[in-house]
Each structure stands twice: as C-alpha cells, then as structure tokens.
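Before relying on records like the one below, remember that each one covers exactly one chain. Contacts with other chains, cofactors or solvent are not represented anywhere in the record.
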Amino acid sequence: MRIVIAEDDPLLREGLALLLRAEAMDVAATAGTPDEALDAVEAFAPDVAILDVRMPPTHTDEGIRAAVEARRRHPGLAVLVLSAYVEQSFATRLLTGGVGGLGYLLKERVGRVEEFLDALHRVASGGTAIDPEVVAQLFTRSRQDTRLERLSPREHDVLALMAEGLGNSAIAERLVVTDGAVHKHIRSIFAKLDLSPADRTDRRVAAVLHYLEDARGRSR
C-alpha cells in the first residue's frame, strides 16, 4: 500500500510515517501543506492519502479542500482525513464527494493502533470509516428527525456501527447476533429511512450522509 501523509505537525507526521513503515507500508511522501500534499499525490500516485483537516495558512479547512480536490483529480484515490475535534460539517463535505474509499477519524484514534490500521485498510479497500465519536454526536443532534424515530433501539445500534463503516459480519460480532439478524435489521433501516433499492447511491452511505447533513443543519 503506497501512502502520502499531509500533516503540519512534524512530530505527528513523522510518527505516522514510522508507524506505517513498521507495518511494511510504503510511505511515498510526507507533506506539511495542502499544496505539497497535492503535488505528492500527483508525483507518487498513492493508494491512500492521509490528510489533517486544519493546515496552513489559515488552519481552518485546507485539509478538507485538499482532500476534495485530490479526489476530483484522482477519483480512485482513497482518502483518510484526521481531525483533532468532531466537526460534522467537514465530514459531510468530504463524504458528499463520493461513496467509497473515504474515512474521517479523530487524531486520538491513531494512538489505538489496531483501530487506526483497521480503518486505514477499510478505506484503502474502498470502504468507509467514520470515527465512533462523530457518529455518537451526530446521533445525539439528530434525535428529533422523524425518520430516526422510526428505528428500534437495535436498529439504532446497527446503524451506528454501519456509520463507522463496519460490514455485516463485523456488526454481528460486535452485537453478538447472527449475520442474518443484521441483514434483517439493515433492510428495515433502509425501509424506514425511505431508501429505495432502485436508488443508484450506496444506501449504507446514504443513511450516514442523511444524519451528517441533519447534524450540520442543527449546528448552524
């Protein structure tokens, strides 16, 4: 797996590079600015770009804008964005640009090496990985949504794990239920959220985006 890392904190940047190289991954380049990150993506054609949300010069949303631009130039590029805080609006902007190969994690997750590597591999394989804390906060802010109220407590649990990017088998293992039970819950969730099988979008991601958009609207 070839990786480009963009992080303006040199300690975290080099720490990430050392961690990934210790896992036999190819860290092709590291960057400290969005422009350097985009140049590195062009030069090395990585499988995954890991970018910090807040980068120079304004330390606001440069990382997100660089991620969106990198995906525009290279639609097959997997992107994993890191943030120090929960910022649902940034997660929404990133995920709206595509339905696969995308992740949004809090930086503290990097210290939980197995979780971080699992998320990285999931994103590299074309899946999604959203930090559990982001999922928890968006659910808290979205409880007045009438579609959310249609879900049973167990369906809430299943959708929360779907939002993290877990597949059916991983959800079944986490909830100690059968794969068949998870499949049944997911079909019910899609029905209650008015997500039709005829839709061209990935319904799992569409369910997550619905909550992210709702949370962003309530935070304004």
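The chain has a mean pLDDT of 83.
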